[in-house]
Amino acid sequence: MSQNPLSSAHHGRLNLEQQKKRARELLREWQADPNVEQPTLAKAQWQIARAQGFSSWPKLKAHIDALDFAARHPDFAASDEANTRHWRCGNDIEHSLTLAGFRGRFQMMADPLCMGPVQDLPLEDYKRQRAHFVSQAFGLDLAAAQQRADHEYGELLKLGDAPAVLWCEADSYDQLFLVRALAGLQALPEHLSLIQINAVPGVQRFIGIGQLAPDVLAWLWPQRRPVTAEALALAHRTWEAYCAPSPMALAEIAQSDHPELPLLAPALRRQLQELPGLNDGLSLTERLALQTLRDSATGEMPFGRVYAELMAVRDPLPFLGDLLFHALLRPLIDSPTPLLYEAQPELDWPRRPLRLTALGNQVLDGQAYWHDHCHATRWVGGVCITPGQPHWTLSPAGEPAWRA
């Protein structure tokens, strides 16, 4: 990932002295450039602030002061008590919460609802279905996957029994976790809050809360908001739509603004892009991976670098962890008619070189349709895509379309 020389590191922890130094360095560059008119320190500071996402230098300074205050006051919020539950769809902030001074218990639900079948089933059947998918996709012991599903969803049934906070970002992995958590509630609990963000000042490409420094999590804490009855109702409606065998209801929700859950619609639009494209049969993630390989100088790239390229540059709203990305691409490699060739299987998978097959190039060019050749059934929520059978796709305009 290329870095803007004026931007901070991706963890969001800004240092005022460092920003002042950058402003002075920029001023010296301007003073040496005859094409720059009337260079001043104030102008340089404003430019630095703009590069970090602020409209003015005072606003950048105020933000840094707020972070410094949070760092100096680990007991910044009395509401974070020992019985508070901090819910997250992964364990990426567990350690940082402790370092930042949070006292409540961390609770994870890691079920990747952005992949595999997600249907409206009785809870026990639903958990068995999800455990089977997780076991198959990630090579886990089925009994262990079932045990984890039982534990996570058992804890989720207790949501609302104690003060709880849901920590979410803007991608579909997080937003589907949020919808699932809220949809399991029949009534609104008294102490249920939500922290959800899609950007952090000073972070050039914000991907997830897990990349943030502990004191930035402390800065986020006062920004939590109570979950509203409107948000609860929207979550119920969205979950029902996501579990449906047709994507039409989900697409309708995705095309509207929802002030009660403002990050939901963009995440749903990105998730709908995991449906097969009408012209090539590829999901957006698959298409971006193939395009990355084609654009490489040698036509070959290690698996891990393809993933890094998507996360850092190409994906408009990244939502996959590395293991999910690996699982998603396996059918393109393991099919009897593959789109990707994987060399050196003795290496750890991130180091294995990938390149396009002849069919991969044809599919990428729209001269062949992937689901006329692949052998693996795919799911996007409750939508099942069976190779060789009529199925739902997504048009270039982003609208669901039936392919007979």
Explain how this protein is built:
The protein has helices spanning 16-31, 41-51, 57-72, 94-100, 123-138, 142-156, 172-183, 214-220, 229-243, 248-254, 264-272, 284-295, 303-314, 322-334, 358-364, and strands at residues 85-88, 105-108, 116-117, 164-168, 192-196, 225-226, 300-302, 340-342, 353-356, 378-381, 383-385, 391-394, 400-403. A 5-stranded mixed sheet has the order 2-1-4-5-6, covered by helices on one side. Strands 3-10-11 form a 3-stranded mixed sheet. Strands 7-9-8 form a 3-stranded antiparallel sheet. Helices cover 43% and strands 12% of the residues. The protein contains 15 helices and 13 strands. It has 3 domains: 16-72, no CATH class; 85-249, no CATH class; 273-403, Winged helix-like DNA-binding domain superfamily/Winged helix DNA-binding domain (Arc Repressor Mutant, subunit A, Orthogonal Bundle), CATH 1.10.10.
Count of all domains:
3
Q: Summarize model confidence as the mean pLDDT.
A: 91
Adjacency order of strands in the biggest sheet: 2-1-4-5-6
**Tally of alpha and pi helices:** 15
Cα separation of the termini = 41 Å
- The ordered H/E elements are HHHEHEEHHEHEHEHHHHEHHEEHEEEE
Structural class: alpha/beta
Over the alpha carbons, how many angstroms does the gyration radius reach?
23 Å
What low-confidence regions span 5 or more consecutive residues with pLDDT below 50?
1-9
Strand content: 5-15%
| Share of helix, binned | 40-55%
Shape: globular
Number of strands: 13
What characterizes the major β-sheet? 5 strands, mixed
